[in-house]
Amino acid sequence: MGKFKSRMYSFFGGRYGTDALYYFLFAIALLLLVINVFVGSFVASLILYGVAASLLVWGAFRSFSRNISRRRRENEVFTGFFRKVFSPFVLAKNKFRDRKTHKYIRCKKCRAVIRVKRIPGNHFLHCPKCLEKIEVTIKERKSNKAPKNKNKNKK
Ligand SMILES: [Zn+2]
User: pTM, whole model, 2 decimals?
Assistant: First the structure.
């Protein structure tokens, strides 16, 4: 048993293991296999199955790989791309979440997004990224659901 254990250790030792890209490949493969159930055409089903299988093989290859620096680099490229694709959705979600308290503005020079507290009036600030001077005008909100009124209603 000890021999088996040490063999397992030497087999798994120094392997890369799992990362975000691994789980992504796994999830996509699973999704394709689920879609496969509903596909009537034999050829389409075969293609889906083939793609899913190769994603799983690729994921397994990466997790057993000993070239750790290279796998890490791949994962960085993937997460960077993923963040880029989904950042507009994350921004929209945050904008909605903070719609009553903050305003999101974009720096005209470097395109960085800056979150500003909704304090009515004209404000000057510097872009935290490129230090460009930015003027922000925040109008008084005409909403009658101001926090003060809310508290009064609650006693
Ligand atoms: Zn800027």
Answer: 0.64
